[in-house]
Design brief:
With about 290 residues, the chain is an alpha/beta fold. It contains 10 helices and 8 strands.
């Protein structure tokens, strides 16, 4: 090949990496593939007069060109909808007739809602779940998610457990989570995730996805907070139930998490800490993102 013909080929290769076999490399390795060896640092090359650029060098440069000015990388949760259900409500205790009204959860009839529990010092479950939910919503929204909460403050009553499920269904949520803290015996400690069971009802088609969501939430919460698995309920922090209206009536993947036991002194000390509540929210966000990606 003449020098002129060789130069023509080299220019063509420089303009299109795919034309010289660079297209496949540009796509990057498969998710589970072993990463390719790191390329040599160009800054380590010997100094000297400029030499003719090779096609491989040009293709590499094209692949590492930064995004055009003004472009914004997609956020990891863009296009996803998450419903957060902060358990109970701060004024439920003032309206016993309303929250004790019986509603149908398909496997039985239950109270519309309950007051929740509290620590020995009086920090309520409703206040805790509202705070963690707001923190979680802020994190998810910063990552591009559309977030809907089942209540909009901690100075109201309800909504009923049936309505909480309906909010997630109406939003066609990609995932929903109900946040709680338990009120077990003082010697009991740890967290657990509650996952729905098939009941011959609307939840049945999403039971498998809910289990996957529950596993991702469990793993992230344990890793992000250090709270151990519950020693008093479930197996490896997983509890499967068919008596919760918020799960039985859900048509979207949904789980509950009991983030700790408010009646246990060690767990209560964590739950009362604002720093811990931020870590809990970050851990839950990590679990949701793992599930949704």
């Amino acid at each position: 090949m003449t020098s002129k013909a060789l130069a023509t080929v080299l220019v063509a290769c420089g303009l299109s990496a795919a034309a010289c076999g660079g297209g496949a490399a540009a796509a990057g390795p498969a998710r589970d593939a072993e990463p390719a060896p790191r390329a040599a640092n160009p800054a380590a090359a010997p100094s000297g007069p400029a030499t003719e650029t090779t096609p491989a060098t040009t293709a590499t440069a094209a692949r590492t060109t930064p995004p055009a000015a003004g472009s914004t990388p997609a956020k990891p949760l863009s296009g996803k909808t998450v419903v957060i259900d902060p358990g109970h409500n701060g004024m439920n205790y003032k309206y016993p007739a309303k929250i004790n009204k019986q509603v149908d959860v398909l496997t039985q009839r239950k109270a519309c809602d309950t007051t929740g529990t509290a620590t020995d010092s009086g920090y309520s479950e409703a206040a805790f779940t509202w705070d963690v939910s707001r923190r979680l919503a802020k994190i998810l929204e910063s990552r591009g998610a559309t977030v809907k909460l089942t209540r909009h403050g901690n100075d109201g009553v309800g909504p009923c457990i049936t309505e909480r499920a309906a909010i997630g269904n109406k939003a066609k949520a990609d995932a929903a989570i109900s946040i709680h803290a338990d009120g077990a015996g003082p010697a009991d400690h740890g967290f657990h995730v509650i996952i729905p069971k098939k009941i011959g009802g609307p939840v049945d088609p999403v039971v498998a996805d809910s289990r996957r969501l529950g596993l991702d939430i469990r793993n992230a919460y344990r890793s992000g907070t250090g709270v151990p698995y519950s020693i008093y309920i479930g197996s490896k922090a997983l509890s499967f139930r068919s008596d919760l209206g918020g799960l039985n009536l859900s048509t979207v993947p949904k789980v509950f998490i009991e983030t700790g036991n408010m009646r246990n002194a060690g767990d209560a000390a964590k739950l009362k800490s604002a720093e811990f509540r931020q870590r809990a929210a970050a851990a839950l966000a990590a679990g949701l993102q793992t599930y949704l990606k």
